[in-house]
């Protein structure tokens, strides 16, 4: 384990020993990969991932999959929340599932065959029809979430994924984007009909997570322009305040750190994606770092304040107000 001590020195206590315990292999796998910088093909990482695929929330989610590749019911897979097809794949990616597993392959193929609209983006639809949803149903949050999952599961070179990337970049920059819809994506930038036509911070965070998953050398000029626009938007306010435009008021969900993460984003996720895009040392993130550190408990853990308890396939994901690292 090649953990770097620099970031750990700022904590009230070190959570890494707990995160690396063998009793929860999914957590151990992610900690080795994301916090200890272990290569994905390192023996410890592979063993932890293999164990995670056989137990805990990953195994519970895969056990609920239909042999045809979908979850709950056929169709585009947005419902039920949060057990439908698209959510199951989104959460499996976040939990570090192995994209080479035949069941993950079947799920990805099902979504790519039934959830992509004629415009290229992934559509929000709970219909049981196995026809792709109309272009008017594409939103940044779902498209970004599924891009993240598909790329993590090895689908970057799939032409269908590349079309969804192109939709995302064009919708953000406004370049070569044929049409916006008042019900969903309502203008260039991150304007969204679900957010009253205002630029949506949640949508921007998810869109950036999707584009951030593309290796820098593989990003086209249009994707790079979209990434810069997204960075500028997320840093246009202090992320710790989450004071992004909204038709109502700033949601309290921004300030509840949780896992897994659906369409809702929180302050930590904004900081994570900006760090992933090379802005970790931007002074405008200072309050975000302080906010996250301020929520740490004395034993080094954090509460899972938004855990989707009772809404996912697994009962083993940490419950609200339980320390969960």
Strand content: under 5%
From the alpha carbons, calculate the radius of gyration and give it in angstroms.
Answer: 19 Å
The secondary-structure class comes to mainly alpha
Distance between the termini: 18 Å
* Global outline: globular
Low-confidence stretches: 1-5
How helical, in percent, are the residues? Answer: 40-55%
Instruction: Note the main sheet.
Output: none
Number of H- or I-type helical stretches: 13
pLDDT averaged residue by residue: 94
H/E element sequence = HHHHHHHHHHHHH
Query: Count the strands?
Result: 0
Structure, described:
By secondary structure, the chain is an all-alpha fold. The protein is 42% helix and 0% strand. It is built from 13 helices and no strands. The protein has helices spanning 5-8, 16-19, 25-35, 43-53, 56-63, 85-94, 102-114, 140-152, 159-173, 201-212, 221-234, 267-279, 286-294. Residues 1-5 have low confidence and may be disordered.
């Amino acid at each position: 384990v090649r953990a770097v001590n620099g970031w750990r020195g700022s904590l009230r206590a070190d959570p890494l020993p707990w995160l690396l315990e063998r009793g929860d292999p999914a957590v151990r796998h992610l900690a080795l990969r994301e916090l200890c910088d272990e290569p994905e093909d390192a023996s410890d990482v592979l063993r932890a991932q293999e164990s995670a695929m056989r137990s805990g929330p990953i195994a519970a989610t895969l056990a609920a999959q239909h042999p045809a590749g979908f979850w709950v019911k056929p169709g585009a897979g947005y419902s039920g929340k949060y057990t439908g097809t698209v959510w199951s794949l989104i959460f499996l990616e976040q939990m570090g599932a192995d994209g080479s597993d035949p069941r993950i392959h079947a799920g990805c193929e099902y979504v790519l065959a039934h959830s992509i609209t004629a415009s290229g983006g992934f559509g929000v639809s709970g219909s049981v029809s196995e026809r792709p949803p109309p272009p008017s149903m594409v939103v940044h949050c779902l498209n970004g979430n599924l891009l993240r999952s598909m790329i993590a599961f090895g689908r970057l070179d799939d032409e269908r994924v590349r079309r969804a990337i192109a939709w995302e970049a064009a919708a953000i920059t406004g370049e070569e984007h044929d049409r916006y819809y008042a019900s969903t994506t309502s203008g260039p930038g991150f304007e969204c009909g679900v957010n009253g036509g205002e630029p949506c911070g949640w949508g921007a965070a998810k869109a950036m997570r999707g584009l951030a998953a593309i290796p820098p050398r593989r990003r086209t000029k249009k994707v790079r322009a979209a990434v810069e626009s997204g960075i500028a938007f997320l840093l246009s306010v202090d992320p710790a305040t989450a004071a992004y435009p909204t038709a109502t008021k700033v949601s309290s969900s921004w300030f509840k750190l949780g896992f897994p993460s659906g369409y809702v984003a929180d302050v930590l996720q904004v900081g994570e994606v900006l760090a992933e895009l090379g802005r970790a040392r931007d002074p405008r993130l200072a309050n975000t770092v302080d906010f996250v550190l301020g929520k740490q408990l004395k034993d080094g853990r954090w509460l899972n304040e938004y855990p989707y308890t009772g809404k996912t396939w697994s009962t083993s994901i940490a419950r609200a107000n339980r320390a969960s690292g």
